[in-house]
Amino acid sequence: MVNHTDSIAQLATLIKNHQHIVALTGAGISAAAGIPTLEQINRDSSIAANFSEEALEAEPVSFYAHFHQAFIDPIFNNGPTIAHNVLAQLEHRHLLDGVVTTNVDYLHEQAGSQQVAPIWSSLNINHCLDCGRIYPLSILQASVPHCPTCGGLISPDPLFRHIATLPAERAKADDCMASADLVLVIGSNGYYDNVGRTATVVDINPKPTMFDRQATLTIHQDANAVFTKLATNLHLPTTSITK
C-alpha cells in the first residue's frame, strides 16, 4: 500500500529545498471543478461536434448552451479548485516561480496566480467576430454573448485559434522551465513536454503518465487531495489569493 502521508512530506521537503519551482498543469487539476478533459471531449462526439467556430456561427444558441454546461458554469460555480488556490498561495509566498498550463479555463488567474503561461490561450480573451474587439471572461456569462459595441457574436479565443499554441506564451513557458530546478507536474498528460532534464520532477496524477519515468516522486492521487494535505503540511490556506 502506498503511504501518501510520506509522499506529501517528501513533496513538502522538496519545495522547501528548491529555489526555482514551476508548476506544469493540465486538465487533471481542473477535474474537481467539473471541467471536461480534452480526452473526454474527444470521446463524446456530441460535445466535440459543438465546439467549433462553424458550430458557433451556425447555431450560436446551441453552441453556447453546450459551452456553458461544459466550461462556463463549472468555472463560475465550482472553480478555482483547492489545487489552484494552493499554487497561488505558494507563488504569493515566493515558493513558486510560476505556472505553465495547457488549460484555457483561467482558473489559475482566478485563484490569484500572477505568473501564468497559458500556452493554448485563455477564456479571458474573447473576440467579436465582426469588429474584432476583445473582451474578458465575464462576457461569456451571457447566454449568447454579443459585442456591446457592434452587436457581433463573441468567439472564445481558444476556439478562434483552433486550440493553437500561442508563440509568446510558449516562449514564456520555455524560459520559465529553463530556470526551474523543481517542476510539479499536475494533471498533465504531456501536451507540453519541455520539462528540463536537469530539474527534479514530481508527477501528481491519479493515473500513470509519461512523466513517471522522469519523476523523482510520483503521487497517484487527484490534485485536490494532494494539495489539501500539502497545505496542512506547509501551513497554507486553501482559499484563493483574491478572496
Automatic annotation (TrEMBL):
Enzyme class name: transferase
Q: What is the protein's given name?
A: protein acetyllysine N-acetyltransferase
This entry's Enzyme Commission designation comes to 2.3.1.286
Please tell me whether the keyword Nuclease is annotated for this protein: no
> Superkingdom, according to UniProt?
Bacteria
The record's listing under InterPro entries reads: DHS-like_NAD/FAD-binding_dom (IPR029035), NAD-dep_sirtuin_deacylases (IPR050134), Sirtuin (IPR003000), Sirtuin_cat_small_dom_sf (IPR026591), Ssirtuin_cat_dom (IPR026590)
Keywords from the named record: Metal-binding, NAD, Transferase, Zinc
Show where the Deacetylase sirtuin-type domain sits: 1-238
Q: Which residues form a coiled coil?
A: none
**Record's signal peptide:** none
For this UniProt entry, the molecular function terms from Gene Ontology, in alphabetical order, are: histone deacetylase activity, NAD-dependent; metal ion binding; NAD+ binding
